[in-house]
Amino acid sequence: MRFFYLRSLAVLIFVVGFVFDSNAQANQFIRYLQAGSPDAGILSRAYLNPVIEGLSYGANGGWVHTARTHQRLGFDISLSATGVFLPSSAQSFRPADLDLENTLLLSPSGIAPTIIGSDVETTFLSSFETPQGTQLIEYAGAEGLDFSDRWLVQGVAMPMFQAGVGIGKSTDLKLRFIPTLQMGSVTRAGLVGIGFMHDIKQHIPAWKIKTFDLSLLAGYTRISGEIDASSVGFTRPDADLRQQEMPFKVHAFLLQALISKKLGTVTFHGGVGYNVTRSTADVLGSYVIFGTTEDDEVVVTDPFSLSFKNNSMQANAGVRLDIGGFYLHGEYSLQEYSAVTLGLGYTHH
User: Fold this and answer.
1) How far is CA 349 from CA 67, 149, 241, 329, in A?
2) Whole-number Å distance between alpha carbons of 219 and 62
3) Environment class of 43 (CB within 10 Å of its CB; exposed 0-12, middle 13-18, buried 19+)
């Protein structure tokens, strides 16, 4: 139990740390442009996948702290953070397993780091079409951010502002958001979401007098933003090139059945549900790729788009402690990438 509390505390500390640490190298995957199409997209997807999956599951966290709905115009407001734990297997990938067409990893280990992996140097060899014909280009691959050495936990975290209000017929409308922010190479990032929670116990006559609460929740969250990809060096100052950027979107859907029981000032809750996440990222702009000499340069425009899909069952259990109108809550979610949510808020029924 002591380990659980220490781990949960680390998740809250990790929110700020991850944001500022990752921005320094968020666009390192652009190095893989030197692999040419379609290998560049395949390598970039493998490199970014752990963080994209983690953020997807984090976006579906923290929706509830009880299955009890508000009376009409009753409300709650909360601030929470969901930390998603990433497995050790997500620290690296094997390029030889990715069905690459023109690219080899020259490093003896045969593995390359993902964005959460170690900051080791890797060397790739790709065949690339230049004005002088097909050439072999040797280049350094993207390095990881070495999460396991920098933090007490290996994962990503998603902070969240959320408000819920009773709209009648034992139904709550939930709205969540993170205001648009600029952080390092992430030039724009924000979050919005909407959800509905409906008391279904009222529709089961035999259960109306029971002292527990039973509800269904449906929620949708969208993260959108843009990464500045111009700081990686694939340009010439005297060239008339399009701006280098990567707009991205994460769409997260959650359908969940919930049950809760209040005992004095403590409410225990649990639930089962299903996560569906869809994410996209478009690498836009003009990039100068050099061959063995600058005379062999190739300008690549809008080189590739990435898409990610994740589906997972979810089971969660949590507890809320009421202190007057204020409350503290915590929740553990068991899913493909498990998560912990901690938060505080105020409620008025």
Assistant:
1) 13, 45, 57, 17
2) 11
3) buried
Q: How confident is the model at residue 13 (pLDDT cuts 50, 70, 90)?
A: very low
Cβ proximity of 199 and 168 under 8 Å = no
The domains of the chain, with CATH numbers, are: 2-348 (2.40.128)
The pLDDT tens digits of the residues spanning 195-215 come to 999 999 999 988 888 899 999
Judge contact between 204 and 196, C-beta under 8 A.
no
Q: Is the dihedral of CA 81, 82, 87, 91 positive or negative?
A: negative
Look up the pTM and report it: 0.86
DSSP structural state of residue 27: T
Do residues 88 and 116 lie in contact, with contact meaning Cβ atoms separated by under 8 Å?
no
Q: pLDDT tens for residues 262-308?
A: 999 999 999 999 999 999 999 999 888 876 566 677 888 899 999 99
Q: How far apart are CA 316 and CA 298, in angstroms?
A: 51
Query: What CA–CA distance (Å, rounded) separates 225 from 90?
Result: 24
